[in-house]
Amino acid sequence: xxxxxxxxxxxxxxxxxxxxxxxxxxxxxxxxxxxxxxxxxxxxxxxxxxxxxxxxxxxxxxxxxxxxxx
Length: 70
What we know:
By secondary structure, the chain is mainly α. 43% of the residues lie in helices and 0% in strands. The longest helix is centred in the middle third of the chain and has 14 residues. The protein starts with 28 loop residues before the first helix and ends with a helix.
């Protein structure tokens, strides 16, 4: 599968071979804080954190968080 870049509306080339759709998400304050932390650590936007996580390119939870949730 080729990784053809698509220009977004801002004129910069996109990283993926498709355009992005705008959506709304409802998150708890603690989840939003964690999302912001991850975005800051990776020097990317919140949107890109979600994009990469759903593509399996970045993990949103570490082992400690998974153990607390179960």
